[in-house]
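Sample A.
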Amino acid sequence: MSFSIVEFLKSLAELTTANYLRQVWGNAPWVELVLDIIGVVLVSSFGLIIVIFLIWLERKLIARIQDRIGPNRVGGKFGLLQSVADAMKLLSKELITPNGADKWAYNLAPYLIVITSLLMWAVIPFAPGVVGVDLNIGLFYILAISSVSVVTILLAGWGSNNKYALLGAFRSVAQLVSYEVPMILSVLVPILLARSMSTVDIIEAQTVPFILVVPLSALIFFISSLAETGRTPFDLLEADSEIVAGFHIEYSGMKFAMFFLAEFLGTLFMSGLFVVVYLGGYRFFGLENFETAGGFALGNLFGLITFFVKMFLVYFVFVWVRATLPRVRIDQMLNLNWKFLVPVTLALIFAAAVVDKLLPTGMGDVSRAGVHLFSNVLIGIVTLEILRWHGRKQRVEQEARVSRNLEGVEALAAEAVSSEAAAAH
């Protein structure tokens, strides 16, 4: 088959360029290798370039939420080139290695954390058929790769030969390892409903978006994602007032920038993963299957647009939380995880498994979703009642403690008065 620019542009619009190139180039062994390399370059370039836009977007959004102007000096009225100027500044800054640092660990950490942030995008379906690789254990792959960030943070903290960096690394590991537990458990609920760990199968199983079926699971996953990406109110890994910015304090220039690149890219990825698992991915009332009368399949393009719109809406919620909530204490953060999120998630898994097993096989998707939603609402009501009872108990104990302290103070005051009276006589 000979190359045609018209057919090539049509394949670009339909997002079927890889299939068109296979027809043009034939079945030679090198074809799949070249197509794989092109796919890797495209996804990696997207991840690295989009961060420049995300930094500008986040600074503008937070400025508007907090009634400020935001970047407005570089690149015209809206400061569009501010992030580009920051990137150029970081590229020109000197790379400093501290005395006594473990050079292998110190230099390897920033590269590893960026690589792991990019690897996770391999199993995200951007549109029907537009996915790096459709693994049947796609979610397991994501969770496994994301765990590597714990090792990179330890490498950075230990290799820097700085007590503040090491303290920040230990704190970060405690946070990341803790919140991996409810995140993994919450993802098990959609896996049970979809009966698959493939990201594509999970999207296709959502005739009703899972956020409407198991909203508590979605909420716990979102909270865990905030902690896993180190976002406010869980940004204890870089608490400036306590540990002087944490595990990356000894990094400068682009090595310093790599950690923030990984943070922004990880936040965007978690937004995309939330869309895949709970918001139906690229699906939007069948628009992803749209085809014109002339056979021009625009469904893939509409699916791609749908996916990105949903992803940036979720990303906006991440930014909104960052601009609104204060930082929590580390004891509050760990108590929230182990004493609240983990037990509730275990109850959700048990309820989802039991309800799904008891429902008849031929039951409609909407009816099935309604029953699961009812079980989620019931668990939510029970959880709120337990929290209300616990809060009331704490208030009673605190009032009793205050009352005892007041009685002690009054007794001491009375004793002091009587002592003064006795001394006067």
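Sample B, a different protein:
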Amino acid sequence: MTTRTSWRQTLRPRQWLKLVVYSLLLVNFIHYFLDDIERARHVAHFGWGWNDWTANFATTMDELAWFMLLLVLELETYLLSDGAFTRGRVAALNFVKVICYLTIGHTIFVFAKYVIDLADAVRIVDTHLCAFADQGLSFTRNLAFWELNATNCTEPSSNNEFFLLLQNQAITDAQGMVIEYELAIADLIEVVVWLVILLFIELMIKIQDRGISSNLFLSFATLSKSLLYGVLWLVAGYWAFRGHWIFAWDETLWILGFMAISMNLSDWRKELAVK
């Protein structure tokens, strides 16, 4: 493999910045885990199986998989020297990657299925929300949940059109349904875009491992990643628009984290070019 070590001492400020970003991402992971627990508290029921539990905690699993991939990429593009890439270590890194890819694939499946499920949600018209009070349902809108009872059923919505969601464990009105669908689409777009970015990074690593510092694909991949980051900024903007500032903040951190990986690759290419 081509050396990645000669420029380390000149990048200490950047490495401190990366450490801060990675630490903040770990804090965000804890936030998402707590969010998934809260969601399960409202929608879990005795009929849930393994698939239901993993679907509920898809965001937690996805965040953990991406965090592990980010660390592996940092090892591959910066932290490990050429001599550290023994056959056993390479196999171990590849094994971690496969597990992470399978987890991300599961997330894409869950998010896509949820979009389809929303299209098939049970629609109920000409009724009042209090008709569903004390039935074990939670009202949801914009990812917030309220347990419905006879005391609070007049507060969340005065509409007369409702939709049953999440295996009929939650209910929302027409406005909430629009928001739920938009957020589901945003989730699906985000995870697919990140997967494509990861594919470009993996291919760039393979090419640069061969000592190639410049070719048409590397230029195309660099430009494509920039455009894809633009899509992610738009997704972050939508989350901010809906008031989910923690999601927008998390997206910003992930973009910065993977841009740091891109900078590692860029410095690696510069070193290859002067040889």
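Observation for Sample B: Residues 174-209 form the longest helix (36 residues).
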